[in-house]
Amino acid sequence: MTATHTFDSALALKPSPVRAGHYFGVTSPDYWNMVGPFGGMTAGIVLQAVLSHPELLGAPIAITVNYASAIEKGAFEVQATPVRTNRSTQHWTIHITQADANGMQQVNTTATVVTAARRETWRASDIPVPQAPPPAEVARMGIGPSGVAWLNQYDMRPISGHVPTKWDGSGDHSETRIWLRDAVPRALDFASLASMSDMFYPRVWLRRAKHVPAGTVSITTYFHAGNTELAAVGTGYLLGRATGQRFHNGFFDQAAQLWSEAGELLATSNQIVYFKE
């Protein structure tokens, strides 16, 4: 019998027997990130709730996740609601809640998802694939620091823009290029693609070479691939590129792109991140 992948175990949601689109889950220590789950895992859970809904139309084309507060260790609930369904698109709102000390459900994550029934059309990509050596020629990152378990769930091979080894304020750019995939091979799907879109460390660390507190407030990911393109990737590596765009008064935005090894652009994302001096 094949063991369940750690990512699928972390994504596991139990549907409510009485409320459509209502699910129950439990945080996973395998994807922990200091004070709560890795943000990419939270995005994956949001998307999983939509993909599990019996009224789902089509496949995801966009997801926005707003991290209102950290998800605490333990049980949580997810509500996915299709607020509008058109001929080819469907619009969703999603909330993740946890019970407080008084047993009242408090929202810690809000999100929106758009799914669509795609049709064959003309296609092109105006973003060039970054130059990169094959994954086998790039050294894999070592074990992550204590309290950041999620890093160990991925095979990351930085090409450029490594995490600074000296926090001396000497940074002069914010671009990272990296190969990545699940450490234990797993076929790519929409939930894992959403998760990997949030795998880039805060650009302010690289731009400043200064280890300041920072955390994602909101992330939007756009999916440019369907099930056929994801199936073609299989368990292969993704080539990622991330860069900061504007750092100003405690917040900055960073953009990221993910390509397949064959050079197919699969997803793009933008996120707003807070930082402190």
UniProtKB/TrEMBL annotation:
<feature type="domain" description="Acyl-CoA thioesterase-like C-terminal">
    <location>
        <begin position="140"/>
        <end position="274"/>
    </location>
</feature>
<dbReference type="Pfam" id="PF20789">
    <property type="entry name" value="4HBT_3C"/>
</dbReference>
<dbReference type="Pfam" id="PF13622">
    <property type="entry name" value="4HBT_3"/>
</dbReference>
<dbReference type="InterPro" id="IPR042171">
    <property type="entry name" value="Acyl-CoA_hotdog"/>
</dbReference>
<dbReference type="InterPro" id="IPR029069">
    <property type="entry name" value="HotDog_dom_sf"/>
</dbReference>
<dbReference type="InterPro" id="IPR049449">
    <property type="entry name" value="TesB_ACOT8-like_N"/>
</dbReference>
<protein>
    <submittedName>
        <fullName>Thioesterase family protein</fullName>
    </submittedName>
</protein>
<dbReference type="InterPro" id="IPR052389">
    <property type="entry name" value="Sec_Metab_Biosynth-Assoc"/>
</dbReference>
<dbReference type="InterPro" id="IPR049450">
    <property type="entry name" value="ACOT8-like_C"/>
</dbReference>
<feature type="domain" description="Acyl-CoA thioesterase-like N-terminal HotDog">
    <location>
        <begin position="29"/>
        <end position="114"/>
    </location>
</feature>
